[in-house]
Amino acid sequence: MISYFLNKIFYALLTLFGVVTVIFFLFSVLPGDPAQMMMGQNEDSDQLAVVKQKYGFDKPVGIQYLYYLNDLSPISFHSKTPVDYTYLKRGKYKAAKLFTIGKTTTVLKFPYLRESFAKQGKRVSQVLAETLPNTFVLAISAITIAMLLGVFMGIVSALYKDKWLDKAIQVLSTLGMSVPSFFSSILFAWFFGYILHEYTNLEMTGSLYELDDFGEAMHIRWKNLILPAVVLGIRPLAVVIQLMRNSLLEVFNQDYIRTARAKGLSEFQIIKKHAVKNALNPVVTAISGWFASMLAGAVFVEYIFGWNGLGKEIVNALNTLDLPVIMGSVLIIAVLFIIINIFVDVIYVWLDPKVKLN
Q: From CA 112, how far away is CA 92, in angstroms rounded?
């Protein structure tokens, strides 16, 4: 168990290093001066030089990359010389001092994702802290809908194989996989939020937290979660139905199922105690992948419904070329992918004791 987690941590660090390297050099070759992006319309040659010196934009790309790694690393090195423009230079962040050698101090800190270009003075970590929880709520709601309905409809489809009910479920499943999320978002928003608004009381757009009518306080609006969660859950729902149906049909042909039937167990007991648990392995694989991709791929759904999540923030950052926010978002998504994959491996062991962590 310990060796498994050590291996996972090692490969996770390699993966994150690769992600950081790719996204840094990818965005470093984009046209435009980051300092000018930060200054916007208030560009002034003297102020521009100050911003470049403060954030190191006047340094070669290789040096900027090393400083970026130093900011991201939990253990980093800093000096009091004027060329040190990284984390501690700004004097806004706390760090635990480890030791000092000459003019270089080694500190222990949280990874520093720098500051947003578009939202001057606001850290990327603050931007992510404001948007990521909303995306988590949306993704968990969507995946819960997909899992509960998908497993149930998959079981029904397998039990009534080749009957009209099975065919109807298969048609719905195929339709759900073929309709793009941006189209279904527009369709649901228009139909349920506009045409049927009088009956559903749902809005075309809205986020989890909204200002009250007096503009004084933020309140939770759970009804705004319904439409984006349903739309985001349509495609994984279709996948779960297909996987659950096919996996269950395969399990029904296993010897231990025949033995259970020969012992006189009811079909309900066989499904509940033996079949479903063993049929869930491919479903767990699909759900884990979908959940991780939802955190990164809910862009269209969040943007169309006005949901203030990570996907919408990424779109806004791309429109304004807010590189630190884009890079921080990609990095946090990569971390979430790694955590989810480890979590899925643990679930495999619980579902199938024959599977070992190694």
A: 11
pTM above 0.90, yes or no: no
User: CA 147 to CA 243: how far, in whole Å?
Assistant: 11
Calpha distance 309→300 (Å, rounded): 11
Which amino acid is it at 85? Y
Alpha-carbon 138 to chain mean position: 10
Nearest residue to 347 via CA among 153, 147, 149: 147
53 close to 89: Cβ distance less than 8 angstroms: no
Beta-bridge partners for 209: 220
Amino acid 62 reads: G
Enumerate the β-bridge partners of residue 101. Answer: 104
Yes or no: say if 248 and 279 are a contact pair by the CB < 8 Å rule.
yes
Instruction: Give the pLDDT confidence of 151-206 residue by residue, as tens digits.
Output: 899 888 888 888 999 899 999 988 888 888 888 889 999 999 889 988 888 888 88
For 106, phi and psi rounded to 5 degrees? Answer: -100, 130
List, for residues 303-342, the tens digit of each pLDDT value.
Answer: 889 888 888 888 888 887 788 888 888 888 888 888 877 7
Bridge partner residues of 123 (DSSP): 115
Is-contact 303 311, C-beta < 8 A? yes
* Residue among 276, 305, 104 at smallest CA distance from 193: 305
Structure tokens at 173: 């499943």
Rounded CA-CA distance 255/229 in Å is 40
Read out DSSP for 63-78? HHHHHHHHHHSSEEEE
Please name the helix (run of DSSP H) or strand (run of DSSP E) that holds residue 256, with its range, or none: helix 255-262
**Phi-psi category of 92—alpha, beta or left, where left has phi over 0 and alpha has psi -120 to 50?**
alpha
Sequence-distant (≥ 6) Cβ neighbours of residue 101 within 8 angstroms: none
Helix (H) or strand (E) holding 11: helix 2-28
Phi, psi of 270, deg, nearest 5? -65, -45
CA distance 72 to 113: 6
